[in-house]
Design brief:
Structural class: alpha/beta
Number of strands: 11
GO molecular function: diguanylate cyclase activity
Largest sheet: 6 strands, mixed
Low-confidence stretches: 1-6
Protein name: diguanylate cyclase
Number of helices: 11
Order of helices and strands: EHEHEHEHEHHEHHEEHEHEEH
Keywords: Coiled coil, Nucleotidyltransferase, Phosphoprotein, Transferase
Pfam families: GGDEF, Response_reg
Catalytic activity: 2 GTP = 3',3'-c-di-GMP + 2 diphosphate
CATH class of the largest domain: Alpha Beta
Length: 336
């Protein structure tokens, strides 16, 4: 008796050294609408399993040379992370035989001769289990993607689209470790918008937000290498993390940023420094060693930022070079 049901057809691998049994099973499964693969040995069954990845395996236990238990273990080893239902077929009916089959990687154990009704009932059950597992895998992947998106969003500043303070802390830790391994210099720059409160008071917070977005774009445009990173440190403060950048290169970055802001001419109606938006910044550069910490670099860059403000703002100060961008520009002019 063959049973037809609405579930999708399966690709079923039948492994049995007895031709009559194998042919009869294949014919019954074929009438039920399934695609059938046949093997008369454990080795051949394993090859078909690896080649076609069937939906289900009907596996005889007693076969010459290598038995069904060996075949089941080999099939399980060939599908890391996956799952293909395996049903053992055997004339052995002792509890120990069933236990041995399950331990070898089987999912069910049927005693020969198997009636078509029992066989198709088992196929339906395995099909349901397979569908449930596929759904669980799909849901797990959806959750993984959702968690990844949430993690990414938790590290992005919603106003500017730059990395936020939390993201910067993690990235700084990674770059310190990478620079320590490679022996390359690492530069951290902290900067903030000069007299930003006056800007907000003069033009309002909506325009203030637009100003911060404008500065963020300039910083992001300055990050031309994949490893360069711009972040919003908090309020009107920003950070640039520049791996493999020496002290002179950091000064070049800073001068380019100030020049870009001056050329952009985003007007500041109440600035005592210039008619446009300006930045003050602190720079620290080092080749990290075992004593280098994110907190230490941030503190040093913040101290340098304080010095830039003390020297008149609209400039970047470097502790390591003991000069600011204005002094460097004058020195370069003197060289000419």
């Amino acid at each position: 008796m063959s049973l037809h049901y609405q579930a999708a057809p399966l690709t079923i691998l039948v492994v049995d050294d007895q031709n009559a049994t194998r042919v009869a099973l294949a014919a019954d499964l074929d009438r039920a609408g399934h695609r059938v693969l046949e093997a008369d040995s454990a080795d051949w069954g394993l090859q078909l399993f690896e080649r076609y990845r069937p939906d289900l395996v009907l596996l005889d236990v007693e076969m010459p040379d290598k038995d069904g238990y060996w075949a089941a273990r080999a099939m399980r080893s060939a599908e890391p992370g996956g799952w293909t239902p395996i049903i053992f077929l055997s004339q052995r009916s002792q509890d120990a035989d069933v236990w041995k089959g399950i331990e070898a990687g089987g999912d069910d154990y049927l005693i020969k001769p198997v009636t078509p009704m029992i066989l198709h009932a088992k196929l339906r059950a395995m099909q349901r289990l397979s569908h449930m597992r596929q759904r669980l895998v799909a849901v797990s992947e959806e959750l993984r993607q959702a968690n990844a998106q949430l993690h990414e969003l938790s590290q992005v500043d919603p106003l500017t689209g730059l990395m936020n303070r939390r993201g910067l802390d993690g990235r700084l830790q990674q770059e310190i470790a990478a620079a320590r391994r490679s022996g390359q210099p690492l530069t951290l720059m902290l900067c903030d918008v000069d007299h930003f409160k006056r800007y907000n008071d003069a033009l309002g917070h909506v325009e203030g937000d637009q100003c911060l977005r404008h500065v963020a774009r300039q910083l992001k445009d300055l990050c031309r290498r994949p490893a360069d990173c711009a972040a919003r440190y908090g309020g009107e403060e920003f950070a640039l993390l520049l791996p493999n950048t020496p002290r002179s290169g950091a000064m070049t970055y800073a001068r380019a940023l100030l020049r870009t802001l001056a050329q952009g001419q985003l007007k500041h109606p109440d600035s005592p420094i210039a008619g446009h938006i300006t930045l003050s910044g602190g720079i620290t550069t080092c080749v990290p060693d075992e004593t280098t910490t994110p907190e230490g670099l941030l503190m040093r860059a913040d101290d340098a930022l304080y010095n830039a403000k003390a020297y008149g703002r609209n400039r970047f100060f470097s502790y390591e070079m003991q000069m600011d961008t204005d002094e460097q520009r004058q020195a370069l002019r003197g060289d000419r």
